[in-house]
Design a protein that fits this description.
8-stranded antiparallel β-sheet, about 290 residues, about 35% helix, single chain, 8 helices, 3-stranded antiparallel β-sheet
Length: about 290
């Protein structure tokens, strides 16, 4: 028993040190703290209130490297709460105008995503990363036609992880494409995190002339509808033909986990907030 307790204590110490090292690296990223406005490329912007911080694409890329998440292949921007209880990744997909009249079959979507994720695990293994498994829905797809927003959430678990991670997705439809938003939080904090995140969405706005309502005849229309936004756009079209390895490549880049568990262990960027100047009226650089 003494040996078991000693081993457990050592494991806890090792884990604690790993979390501290990761937190320090995250803390040193070029966060722009609120109140300010975060510019999301040329497509949109979001208000960053006091107590929250924003990262441009260079900082987001480094964040992904620190937390061992694959690069998405596009510019990402991060909005985070000071205590890192949730982290939201924003990226724009220039796919065209997505028609929103499609019915959603949650069971079929879950089956496609699960199968595609297992195909993606082969590449994760080649990179030396922990395979990811979809354990089910946390929130089934739901579309709000009033604000042109599609939401859903998957429960994920790393093969060698003790706990689950929630990937809560939002798609904000625009005139020329879709703003992809991925909210990363823990199952225990899901309800509070989603509520807090949603309270910040009124501060999001597409650039003038780029909203869904600004669509004009002759604008490019996407070749797929709402369901494909859940399963990976063009990759989903390939999946319909049985090419799950293709959708797997998309899912490899879509899923995000936090190494060791920044959210779960209560890491924060509190020191950063205390030691750096807050944003001014000048927007955060893109």
């Amino acid at each position: 028993m003494k040996h078991l307790l000693a081993a457990f204590a050592f494991a806890c110490l090792f884990l604690s040190n790993a979390v501290f090292a990761q937190e320090k690296k995250i803390e040193d990223l070029p966060w722009v703290v609120g109140p300010t406005k975060g510019q999301i490329g040329a497509n949109a912007s979001i208000q960053v209130p006091e107590g929250y911080a924003f990262l441009g694409p260079d900082g987001a890329k480094e964040f992904n490297r620190i937390t061992e998440n694959p690069e998405s292949g596009v510019d990402e921007y991060i909005l985070a709460k000071q205590d890192l209880s949730w982290i939201a990744f924003f990226s724009f997909d220039l796919v065209g105008y997505v028609k929103d009249d499609e019915k959603l079959d949650a069971d079929a979507l879950l089956s496609s995503v699960t199968e595609g994720t297992e195909a993606a695990n082969e590449e994760r293994k080649e990179n030396g990363w922990d395979p990811i498994h979809v354990t089910g829905w946390s929130f089934k797809p739901q579309y709000d036609g009033t604000i042109k927003s599609l939401e859903w959430a998957f429960r994920l678990k790393g093969e060698h992880s003790s706990g689950e991670t929630i990937n809560y997705n939002t798609r904000l439809l625009g005139r020329r494409g879709v703003m992809q938003v991925l909210l990363l939080t823990s199952p225990e904090q899901l309800q509070a995190s989603v509520a807090d995140f949603k309270s910040k969405l009124p501060g999001f706005a597409f650039t003038a002339g780029e909203s869904y309502a600004d669509f004009r005849a002759g604008d490019h229309v996407a070749e797929y509808g709402l369901a494909a936004l859940v399963t990976g756009g063009a990759a989903a079209v390939a999946a319909k033909k049985g090419l799950f390895a293709v959708i797997g490549v998309f899912l490899l880049k879509m899923w995000k986990l936090l190494l060791v568990g920044v959210v779960a262990f209560g890491a924060s960027i509190r020191k950063f907030f205390g030691g750096k100047d807050k944003g001014t009226d000048k927007s955060a650089e893109s």
